Fold this protein.
Amino acid sequence: MKMPVNASIEYYKAEEKFTSAKTREDKIACLEEMIRLLPKHKSSETVHAQLRKKLAKLKEEKPKKSGQRPKWIVKKEGAGQVCLIGVTNSGKSTLLKELTGVDADIASYEYTTTKPEFGMMRYEDVWVQIVEIPSTFEPEVMSIVHNSDLILILLDVNQGLEKQRREIDDILARRMIKTKKSYVMTKQEINIEKLKRQIWDNLGKIRVYTKTPGKKAEDKPIIFKSKAKVKDVVQEVHKSFLKHFRYAKIWGKSVKFNGATVGLKHALADKDIVEIRA
Ligand SMILES: Nc1nc2c(ncn2[C@@H]2O[C@H](COP(=O)(O)OP(=O)(O)OP(=O)(O)O)[C@@H](O)[C@H]2O)c(=O)[nH]1
Ligand SMILES: [Mg+2]
């Protein structure tokens, strides 16, 4: 490896340790240390890139024994979880920051993000969790993708679109991931408000506001799966309500007119107001 300029003695020590490291985990730890210690300026960019590439490659290898590598757990929060996935440098961290305000590392070199980064996106009256999936696509991070509600695939307009799409499709197919997909073209003007709506519309969730007779509807929505029925709302509000249920009145898109009377099997729509009569 080319000698970086102005690196500290600690950096060279870490490099020495890396050279003599035997296990994959030790090598990863040393490389991460080297990346941390290497000064960040123009003339060290190439070395940074080399180190990160090496790290990405090492991380991609299968560990010899299970349980040796750190597990990255991203606790689900908010109304749903969306994974940002794309080839390296496709603009994932940039988009994560624009959607959530989280200060993720953004850089022109490859594999800048090596662990999942996440934040919360505000859309109208709900919060949605956005997770950047490192382009190393390790099993642990792919299990996050597996369990999420939506995959937002980033396609960099400056790179071959079909090739990127195929690469991502292959990775998802190989892991048998069937999570719903949506696409966004990056490195061009993005209407963030429109993209937020696209994310919400594809998330597979709806907002329902409950209402007591004679009163205004609740401000805070309850989140359900898109195909939720009145029965799901009754059960969520109060289990014992079910046997006393007579009918529900609905205001919103799922009914032909506001205040329509429906039964337990009526399918709800996003932003419906539900008044349960028992
Ligand atoms: N002009 C322009 N540059 C962008 C845009 N989005 C990202 N970039 C640049 O592209 C480079 C990579 O962006 P990142 O957001 O770090 O990409 P990433 O997909 O997170 O990359 P890795 O984590 O390294 O895989 C950076 O230099 C960004 O400044 C964009 O919309 N327009
Ligand atoms: Mg990134």
Observations:
- The radius of gyration is 24 Å.
- Residues 227 and 267 are 6 Å apart (CA to CA).
